[in-house]
Amino acid sequence: TLRLICTTTAVQRKNGGPPGPEKYTEAFIKKQIEEFNLGKRHLANMMGEDPETFTQEDIDRAIAYLFPSGLFDEQARPLMKHPTEVFPEQRKIQWGEDGRPFHFLFYTGKQSYYSLMHETYEKLLNVQKHEEQLIAQDLPLQKEKRNLAGSRWLTKIELEEMLLEKVSDDDYSRFIQLLQKLVALPCADIEEKYIQKFSKELPVQLQKVVIEPLQYDERGVAFSTGEGKRKTASATAVVYDNGTGKITVNGIDILHYFPVLQDREQLLFPFQFLGRIGKHDMVCTVSGGGRSAQAGAIRLASAKALRSFVTEKEVEFMRQAGLLTVDPRVKERKKPGQEGPRRKFTWKKR
Amino acid sequence: DDKLLTEPLKHPDFFNVKELFTLKDLFDARVHLGHKKGCRHRFMEPYIFGCRLDQDIIDLDQTMQHLQLALNFTAHVAYRGGIILFVSRKRQFCHLVESTARACGEYAHTRFWQGGLLTNAHVQFSPGVRLPDLLIFLSTLNNAFEPHVAIRDAAKMNIPTVGVVDTNCNPCLITYPVPGNDDSPAAVELYCKLFRMTIIRAKDKRRQSEAVEELR
Q: Region Disordered: what ranges (chain A) (predicted)?
């Protein structure tokens, strides 16, 4: 007869430790989904709409109408969303009724990360085998260079989202090294699809700014538009060719609009820099800001418009002169406990 | 159901594991090759046949017996639906061991062993987790040439262990040690093949017996 000695079932946790994050069983999520659908139909009825065609936006509007809340934090307001969005997609219970876990790497702790490493290593071995076959048949190895400059690997946070579990820095760097090793092999084109899952297109930052071509109005005169901002002022400028150097702002001549010499100098600076003072006409509209801010905005707008008239080298000169850069300076806020943004209250010794 | 469980225990070799391998297979897979004399562990001396040019040779007759006992035990555990965990810290064979485990439908752990995996399981995993019923070591040493923590932990948690012990390993806490080479690819492939075949055979036999019982 078999005598049961101490078994290996883990002792149930007694009180004395903080409970971990709540784990949701599949049955719980299913029940929540049923309740959500029922509640959606009730809500549609209440609002007098058709229960069949009640979308998520309608639900949000209905909830905002029935439970108006002035709370600042969006996440603190009443919410009715599908349970899969409310309950984070985390580990449900990992084993079946008989206690056997579903995943074969469950006992490692980081099952998704290690299974990913396992798969990637398998692809690597595949590629090596393929390479050996090609060598055995004396066929040439493909040497097309993949475009590495236009793509980046997934970041650590994106990988964590993909695997639904924490990934440490070490693990992440190991994974990236393995991917790089895979990509470096000559026949890696076979696993192209698999690699694309982990690479992302870089937003094209290094692309040159497209200079718009000149447009022609009814009289046949070439013109181009530009927009500029400075502090709170925004301006649009239209620069015409074959002009006499006349500049109009909001329908008013600059001598009347900008009485101060400094502002007029700012307006004329782009033309003076390119040596085209008497050659262009300009019509601008500007709003917001103060005197100096409007002048700066028009200057930027006119510089941007002038790019279309001028060679690439001169555009580069303009850029280096700072004519094409948006001035990021805005008014700094006043802080409590100080008199101004930087000025502190007078320090009294006693 | 009771009969299903007690029936295999009456025979010494219910699953006929003896036919899975011969002495020649072990020799061809270079299982008898050990490490150099300087690496020899004191407790492995009974299992060593001799020493040739400073390299230890493992006694394959003893290996045969131990391997039969080990395979028989794994077959019985697999027959009763126990969880088997393959452990190996050799980087060369990590992929092979994981694929074997997946092919059998059992579990593998060839990565860094976190301290409280077995002893602190209800904190690391959920409270209701089921621990492995058998640990199979394809290599008992870890990457620092020290005995793997899992041997000690399994002994603490009363989990039986089967392990391939090389001449520099400590066979003490392992329930079914199998003296043999753990460094050659050929030897490790042979072990993986044998374990895979026994486990699959045991599971098939279980399914057949259950089907026979259902028909009655």
A: 328-350
